[in-house]
Amino acid sequence: MAHAGTLSIAHLHKQYEVKGRTLPVLEDITLTIAPGEFVSIVGASGCGKSTLLRLVVGLEEGYRGEILLDGKRVAGTSLQRGIVFQEHRLFPWLTVEQNIRLALLNTPGSAAEKDRNVAEHIALVGLRGFEQAYPHQLSGGMSQRVAIARALVTRPGILLLDEPFGALDAMTRSYLQQELHRIWQAEGITMILVTHDVEEAVYLGDRVVVMEPRPGRIRRIVPVGLPHPRERAGQAFSRVRDAVLQEFAGQAIAAETIAEPA
């Protein structure tokens, strides 16, 4: 089982320079995520959700504030921080087994230990029997499960997911949400999911962080407080989902007010 990391973000600010102008992207983001917690982040396009994940994983730098994993400042990429993108990004010339094993290239351990680790994670994501298949022989959902296994095989302290099911059809998406929930409970790992899908956010998250755009900042953190597994059709689920959706309605009203002529 992977170590579950503690993520602490304090007064995070991020900006870009675009054609000589400063473009604020994130403003005063403060958030603490406990070990083993699943946090969903939702918000309209342009609110900086993906930028926040890229900063946490170490793909971007040049920010003000603090990002700490287990008390240590994030600097560059690390095997302690795994990430899954919307596109699976598998190497088409490698098999399922080879794609996952590639993540272990620079990790300690014997070849036999790495083989066992890969086999365990193939089983974890439900792809036993597909070890020698190539990406073009897999469905989109299966490819994303390979990407999840590849991100988990190094046993990171935290797994970041950036719209991992956004390109999939509704039925596959629903199935993989259940699978991700199962994997999260089996691994006990800290997870952060960025999504546009409010129902997905509530189904998976212990808390839902609602962000508002330009610059991106936290509008509200909604505790879900429902036991697992969750019943999407239940009244309690609907109340939490509606509470999150109400935040988006508030954003729209605020935007219209700002746009009104004086």
From TrEMBL:
Name of the protein described by the UniProt record: ABC transporter ATP-binding protein
Keywords: ATP-binding, Cell inner membrane, Cell membrane, Membrane, Nucleotide-binding, Transport
SUPFAM superfamilies linked to this entry: P-loop containing nucleoside triphosphate hydrolases (SSF52540)
Coiled coil: none
Superkingdom of source: Bacteria
Originating organism: Cupriavidus oxalaticus
Entry's family note: Belongs to the ABC transporter superfamily.
CDD domains: ABC_NrtD_SsuB_transporters
Domain ABC transporter, first and last residues per copy: 7-238
InterPro entries: AAA+_ATPase, ABC_transporter-like_ATP-bd, ABC_transporter-like_CS, ABC_transporter_ATP-bind, P-loop_NTPase
Pfam families with a match to the protein in the record: ABC_tran
PANTHER family linked to this entry: ALIPHATIC SULFONATES IMPORT ATP-BINDING PROTEIN SSUB, TAURINE IMPORT ATP-BINDING PROTEIN-RELATED
Single GO molecular function: ATP hydrolysis activity
